[in-house]
Amino acid sequence: MSTIAIVGAGPQLGFAIGTKFAERGGFDVALVARRASQLEAMVDRFRSAGVSAAAFPADVTDRQNLAKALAAAEEHFGSIDVLEYSPAPTLSDLADRPLVSAADLTVEAVLPELETSFFGAVAAVRQVLPGMIDRGAGTVIGTSGAGSGPMVVPQVANANAANAALRNWLLALNESVADRGVHVAHIALGAMIGSGRPNSEPDVIADLYWKAHVERDAPEIFHYDLPEDFEFRLADKFRAD
């Protein structure tokens, strides 16, 4: 049985990705995120659908504990065959470290974003990549907003600078390990997930992840589904009003 580990697992896209891999490939699902209660609720949903799932709470900014959580998932399930990395900020996070425009960017504003989007990803991959290389098989998928490269969104420069670092590294990593059986992909999402637009629904977007895993022909997937009159605003789950 194969296992997907979803780091930054949430009840929308994270749950949809786990469901997709379970339904299409019979995968077990390892869930990694900060909030243990939310993870346990997701585990209950998976188990009620007949999917083998387990929670491994960890904060991606605590790189040592993140590695321990993934090691525990490997021990529990036997291996991690697919790693998906997509932590997202909460309202509390945004209050503590608000989004900053390109003209106002400071070192202090970008460092926390690097911890979450980039350094945590490096730590997670370093934990699971050796096993994938030893087995000669595996998939690593990192998710970011499309401002990581395909789109220019100056209103969120601190987040996008960190996401761009993630994107650059994943593309280089794919070049480095493709001949050893490991496929690495970056998925850039220009969409407001769960907004009601058909192509922005979690289940639809989750298809991109399954495609990346099974087709293994593209190091980057750009999914754009924003309205023609789109103007930057926070996704609903991050809005105080």
UniProtKB/TrEMBL annotation:
Origin species: Streptomyces calvus
Phylogenetic lineage: Bacteria, Bacillati, Actinomycetota, Actinomycetes, Kitasatosporales
A Pfam family of this chain: adh_short
PANTHER family reported for this sequence: OXIDOREDUCTASE, SHORT CHAIN DEHYDROGENASE/REDUCTASE FAMILY (AFU_ORTHOLOGUE AFUA_5G14000), OXIDOREDUCTASE, SHORT CHAIN DEHYDROGENASE_REDUCTASE FAMILY (AFU_ORTHOLOGUE AFUA_5G14000)
Full protein name: Short-chain dehydrogenase
Listed InterPro entries: NAD(P)-bd_dom_sf, SDR_fam
